[in-house]
Amino acid sequence: MARKMKTMDGNQAAAHASYAYTDVAAIYPITPSSVMAEHTDEWATQGRKNIFGQEVQVTEMQSEAGAAGAVHGSLAAGALTTTYTASQGLLLMIPNMYKIAAEQLPCVFHVSARTVSTHALNIFGDHSDVMACRQTGFAMLAESNVQEVMDLSAVAHLAACDMAVDNIDNGVFRILRGQIVNHNLTVWPELGRQGICNLLEHLQPVALQGDHLLTFQSDIHICIIPASSRDCNVLANIFLGLRKKCLISAGPKNQAASTSFADAA
To answer: Could you tell me what percent of the chain has a pLDDT over 90?
Structure first.
């Protein structure tokens, strides 16, 4: 089925796709990612349902550090959880990111990449914040236009669940080019509810409820970091397989605008 064309920016595209796959969103506003959390909060207030037929539970914490802690706790309790952040806010989440990745929890962070402020406040867009997180074990997906944001948001959530099933160091965060893609208002094909639901099969094996809660053994996790490098090829196959499904759902007229990820891989 061909997608409907809609006018949106990167923040709305990310929020639209992430809302569908999210049970809980723990948030704290920071420029330029705040709009993603605002859309999520607005839709939850309006009673919009995710693909599980539930409203997303949105909780604003006292800081980004608190949001990351809430994300970790919510994931461990069995809820598919996400957050939205940038710059110093992302750096405050690093301690919990190590835990989330090593515990193989299906988490997605949506990041509007922004310069880390040093001697002065800086809201320019660069990758100094996300590059500081390379050692945490999170996989990274970067986008250069609004359609890639829409598609790879869905890919990120589905890949996080696939990684949990395959016992791969987990956690994915998506990188928007701060102040460029996230505020770039453009007409793009929307990943509609039917297209989102068609990908639901990837989530069914990892419904973390009741008797499916994860348990951890500290003697195993001492080997997590040295062993993680062997998972790179598996991750690439997961991402590319899900990306192919999104391209198919886009229809032939819209695929050309959103193939750079597959070409780069």
So the answer is: 29
Separation between Cα atoms, residue 53 and residue 109, nearest integer Å: 22
Give 121's contacts (C-beta < 8 A, 6+ positions apart).
none
Joined tokens for residue 28: 């704290």
Burial class (CB in 10 A: 0-12, 13-18, 19+), 227: exposed
CB 97 within 8 A of CB 171: yes
pLDDT of 207 reads: 42
Q: Which amino acid is at 23?
A: D
Q: What is the dihedral of CA 15, 21, 25, 31, to 10 degrees?
A: -20
Annotate 166-221 with three-state secondary structure.
CCCCCCEEEEEECCCCCCCCEEEECCCHHHHHHCHHHCHHHCCCHHHCCCCCHHHH
Give the pLDDT of residue 44. 96
**Tokens 């990449």 identify what position?**
113
- CA proximity to 265, closest of 176, 166, 152, 180: 152
Asked if residues 109 and 173 have their Cβ atoms less than 8 Å apart, the reply is yes
Q: pLDDT, tens digit, for every residue of 188-215? A: 667 766 666 666 655 544 444 434 444 4
